[in-house]
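User: For my dataset I need records formatted as: sequence, then structure tokens, nothing else. Please produce one.
Assistant:
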Amino acid sequence: MKNPLLTVAVAAALSLGSAAHAASNDELAQIRSQLQSLMQRVDKLEAENDSLKAENDQLKAQTAQVSKQIAQSADMQPSVPAAKGADWPNRVVLKGDVRYRHQQTDDESASARREEDLLRARLGVDAKVNDSIVAGIGIATSSAPGNPRGANVQLDGAFSRKSLYLDLAYFDWTFADNAHFIAGKMKMPFVRPGQSLFWDNDINPEGIALTYTKGSMFGSAWSYWLEENVQSTATTTITTDTKMYGLQLGNRFDLGGNTLVVAASYYDLAAAKGRRPFYNNASNGNSLTATGALAYDFQVVSLMAEYSFKLRDVPFQVWADAARNLDAEYDTAFTMGTMVGKASNPGTWETGLAYQLIEKDALFAQHIDSDFGGGLSDADGWVFRTGYAPSKNWVLNATYFKNVNNKDVGTEHDFDRLMLDFNTRF
């Protein structure tokens, strides 16, 4: 039988047949007619069911084909994020620091001892532009009109507002493996040893730079702008711009777990002699002509070395830095020092001692440390440092400068400075 209904109908017919002797011919005819009609309806329903099943299978096949075409089309289209830029928190790093400093200065050439409280605040953002470019922006406090050698502001002026300046604005493009092209107002792209004060830590030069590392070797080159249309005499202006070109090559040696870093550097302060490329119209100790312009050019060659090791798990560092200006009479700068420990993790400490000599025209004085000898060249003396980290991201420092100014030219005088720093960072 094709259908359960047909089975039921036949069974009913057999039952009726067994009882046919008790029924009249008219009744049997009527029953046969009804049975025949029922079987025709069953056949019709089976046919309709087969037709519906075929149509359903055809629709399923068409739906599968359309879904496949849609999937193939989607694979060919560029992916569009559900929410454009929703991943920006993963590409941006916010960081900063706040420092409170108590400072006492005893300058024998000044009329009185000076006591100051200073504040420094810096805020920076590093953003990953794409897989090869990082951009950085930073702002910082500073005394007007934006001291290049310091972000300190003095606590005075009857609670006056303090000035903020653009401290960093650069991009760093990794154009090849371990090779970077940097442009803008940037962090110094060259290596400096230990606690050398040939450059002030707050200097952020402006221009372009290239850096490259390969294994233990490293190098950098830079071209910086200092001043446009620099005045050369009191009555004449020369339109030559003062720039700085530099190069550094070095290597890091692994000596059984200890590290020795050596490097040689050269920079040329182009179009400097006879001009005044000064911030705030101050030469900071370099020799001047009768008209107030620089008496010498600055072609400075320097050599540095830094040796780092551990003794009973205590970090030790010994370093030296020497430089000579090829175009000057008082042309030599030298510094060396040591640091024991490192105040970084909670409960850690550090202490160090250094000696430094900078003759009058050995270095371009606009860039040397602003605290050693009051930020002037023609100075020598000692620096004592100590620090302690009570907890995470908090370091207490004390630094004492015992220096002598006018070491080569003029009348010598003592310069002493004590700095007590409360440093926090995030």
